Every structure is written in C-alpha cells, then in structure tokens.
Amino acid sequence: MAKKVVSTGSTTAKTGSTTVQAGFDYAPAPESRAIVDIKSSYGLFINGEFVDSTGGNSFKTISPSTEEVLAEIAEANDADVDAAVRAARRAYTRVWSKMSGAERGKYLYRIARIIQERAREFAVLESIDNGKPIKESRDVDVPTVAAHFFYYAGWADKLEFSGFGPDPKPLGVAGQIIPWNFPLLMLAWKIAPALACGNTVVLKPAETTPLTALLFAEVCQQADLPPGVVNIVTGAGPTGQAIVSHPDVDKVAFTGSTDVGRAIAKAIAGTEKKVTLELGGKAANIVFEDSPVDQAVEGIVNGIFFNQGHVCCAGSRLLVQESVADEVLERLKRRMATLRVGDPLDKNTDIGAINSAEQLAKIRELSEIGELEGAERWSPPCELPAHGFWFPPTIFTGVTAAHRIAREEIFGPVLSVITFRTPAEAVEKANNTPFGLSAGIWTEKGSRILWMASRLRAGVVWANTFNRFDPTSPFGGYKESGYGREGGRHGLEAYLR
Ligand code: NAI
Ligand code: MG
C-alpha cells in the first residue's frame, strides 16, 4: 500500500510529548467503484426529464481526493430556473396538492426503499464526489437519508394530527438550496418534509457535489414520481439567487454560510415568501472532570473530525475543566495519532479529503491566524497524499475567547481547546459566540446535564454523545445559526400554511 496515512506505518510514532505504539499495519481495504456509473455529462432535471441548459454553460465536478474531473454539469440560468419553477407549479396545482396524503406517502416510501436498495451506489458516489470516508457515507449519510424519507412518509397521511391545525395546507413551490458537506442528507432533509406536506420543489445542490442529487433524480424517475414534483437544477451562487428571487417560489429553504443566509433574508424581505435558514456554528463540547474520559475523548474526536469537520454543528471548541485538561489532552493526542487520513474509498479511512481548494485555503488561513495570534498548534505526524485537498487533524491549545479560531467557523478538522473551572464559567464561555446551533456536555451527573442544558443557547444539546442525527429529532439554531427547525414533527411547520 502506498503509505498515505497517519503514523501507523512505523511501530513508534513520536507525537509531541506523547509516544504512540502502533502494533500493526492495516491492509488496504478499498471499496469498489464499479457499482457507480458516472456519466461524462449531466443535464438539468426538470419536469421529470434530463434537459440541456438553455444557455449551454457547464462546469466540472471533481473528486477532491484526486482532483480527477468526474463529469461536466449543466449550469442553470434564469430561464432554466423559471422552467423548473413552472414545472413545479404545474405539478403542484394539477397533481401533488390534490393527491391524498396516503398516496403521497406511498411515493415517499417507494423512494426510501429504492435508496436502501441502491445504498452502496449512493455511498460510493458521495465519497467520490465529496471526499468523505466511505464508512461515514455508508454508515451515517445514506442510512439517515432513507430514514428521513421513511419518517416523513409516515407523516404524509397524518398531517391533521401534527399540531398545526385541523386541516393544514402546503405552501406551494419550495426553492431549496443545499451545501456540499452532506449533499444527499441535506437533500433528504429538504425534500422529504416538503413532499410529505404536499409541496413541490426546485432544489439546487452545491456546485462541488451535484452527483448524488442527480442520481436521486433518477430515483424519482424509477419511483414514477409525477413529473415536476421534484426538479433539480445545478449551478453556483447565481443559480441559487435565481431560485430565491423567482416570484412564483413560495418558500425558500437554505443551508450554508451565514453570509449567504443573510443575503437571502435580505432578498426575500418584504415578500410573502416563507424562509428557513440553517447556517453556521461554533459549538462547545464541554468536558467535566467527572466525565468518563475515554468516552469523552471519542466524543471529542467524533465531534470535530467526523466528516473532516465540515459540519455546521461540529464540536469545534473543546471546553475542558482545568483539573482534567492535561489528562484529556494527552489521551486526545494519543487517539488522534491513530486516525487514518487518506483515500475516502478505503474502508479503514477515518478522515477523507477537504471538499475543495477554496475550503482548504480557508482552513489554512484561519489556522495560520491562530498561530499568529499566539495559540499553540499540534497535529500528529501525518503523511498526506500528493494530489487532492488534505488537512491533518489539528488542535490548538492556549486559545482565548478573543482569538479568531475561537469565534469563526473554520469548517475543517481543527479544534480549539479552552479551559474552565466552574459550570457557570463553562456556560458563559460556551455562550460567548455569535452562533447557537449545538453543544455537548460530558459528565456523570444527570443534574448537571439538565442544569447546563437549560442555560446553553444552542438548538441541540447532546449529553455524553455528539453529532447524533435522527429524523424524529428537530434540528436548528439560535442567533447567527439561523431560524426554523428541520426534522421531527417541528420540521413539518416549515412546509405548512
Ligand atoms: P455557501 O453558503 O456559499 O454555499 C451554500 C449553497 O448556497 C451552495 O449551493 C451555493 O451554490 C449556494 N449559494 C451561494 N451563493 C448564493 C446566493 N447568493 N444565493 C443563493 N444561493 C447561493 O457556502 P460555501 O462558500 O460553500 O462555504 C463557505 C463557508 O460557509 C464554509 O467555510 C462554512 O464555514 C460555511 N458553510 C456552512 C454550512 C452549513 O452546513 N451550515 C455548509 C457549507 C458551508
Ligand atoms: Mg465534487
């Protein structure tokens, strides 16, 4: 095997002050690409068919782990977006809003089952286009996608019992814009509740990760979903803007950066459009002295290194109680030295590729600023592949609340470590952020969990776990993390009148 992974090749790896014994090496365990059929070019999915863009423009999607060009993707202009919205409106008026909830549910169940049947294909394609490790796309992303469709399929014929009035009505056409960190999962979070409630959609995947959304379009065909109920238009910011500003879009749902979220809120101000925004985060993962340390270390690793840290609810600030800080950091470093960085399709890979050159540049820049501002940077010895976009798992100690790496979303595998002495100080430091999406608490005391949870200004608070997602549980933020909730019964509200 070409050695492209962390420190496991040598029997002893010197990791700062920690010496790691690695007793064995891993054999390569590549998942086969043969199951996916990537076409050389893709059109737009409008009214149930793949069509060319009217402007004829296109862009490339690449594999971030190799920089190999995967496919040429049509770029939707204003006229294409208009055609998609018109198709969605027709399908809404003539078919989907007239159909009984039970009938709509049947389509959603069918989609969920097809996703399960084609799970490996989706997982491999997601890992190729996005760079995330196959064990995550296979064990987290795709199963959670299917679970989302199953969950909202179950609501479709029970909306009158959902707590939003005796006869809740859909909004109409939903314009949905999603990011690149969980491409298929964010599609499911957007499309499943919208369709269950009787809306039709025009969805734009992110420009670096369009392929699983286009495979999902094929699933819609396979499920015989009426044409126009789901439309997928590809493109970058201008395509997203065309969706947001289209006069016949009734609802905008967005997940992405706080800056674009702000621009969208401005663009629709004064219109009738409803909006939900799922934006950034800078979550505190809070470890108390009475926590089970090994489990907490696993939770810290999962909190920040899962999905290369490209997670809006990532535990990017570790708040550790001073009395155990040295021990936690020592064990964390030892654990980090065993993380395997490399080929996303290798089943033993823990950390895959950074999604794009732009994102890598941002992570590098903020990390350099962290050093310049005086924080101490540490990574385990880590040989990175020669091609593609990579960043080693990294921690910063000696971080203060004023440092940019403590305040800004890095959206990469970079953890800022801060200490505290008392629970009150932990709350104050955790809440000292413009964001408010998630938080984690590690302690043996149930009473402390409840005391903390009631004081943390975060939409999701995990206790003795982190980054757990379930379709039955609402997800969303406070402050600059956005507004509205996705998931669970609460998630229906965003798509009902
Ligand atoms: P972005 O917010 O630009 O992209 C998200 C989606 O919005 C993409 O589909 C993009 O094409 C679309 N978009 C861009 N400009 C638009 C506009 N003016 N109107 C409508 N749609 C538009 O995020 P980007 O640039 O990829 O990442 C920048 C930073 O944003 C990241 O470093 C990270 O901090 C944060 N981010 C947060 C995410 C989250 O899950 N909350 C997801 C992705 C990025
Ligand atoms: Mg890509």
Summarize this structure briefly:
With 497 residues, the protein is α/β, with parallel strands linked by helices.
Q: What can you see in these coordinates?
A:
With 497 residues, this protein is an alpha/beta fold. It has two domains: 252 residues, Aldehyde Dehydrogenase, Chain A, domain 1 (3-Layer(aba) Sandwich), CATH 3.40.605; 190 residues, Aldehyde Dehydrogenase, Chain A, domain 2 (3-Layer(aba) Sandwich), CATH 3.40.309. Helices cover 36% and strands 17% of the residues. A seven-stranded mixed sheet has the order 15-16-17-14-13-18-19, with helices on both faces. The protein has a six-stranded mixed sheet with strand order 10-9-8-11-12-20, sandwiched between helices. Helix 3 packs across helix 4. The longest helix is centred in the N-terminal third of the chain and has 22 residues. The chain is globular, with a radius of gyration of 23 Å. The N and C termini lie far apart (57 Å).
Q: CATH superfamily assignment of the largest domain? A: Aldehyde Dehydrogenase, Chain A, domain 1
Instruction: Catalogue the ligands.
Output: 1,4-dihydronicotinamide adenine dinucleotide, magnesium ion
Radius of gyration: 23 Å
The percent of residues in helical segments reads: 25-40%
CATH topology of the largest domain: Aldehyde Dehydrogenase, Chain A, domain 1
Average pLDDT across residues? 94
| Sequence stretches where pLDDT stays below 50 over 5 or more residues | 1-20
Number of strands: 20
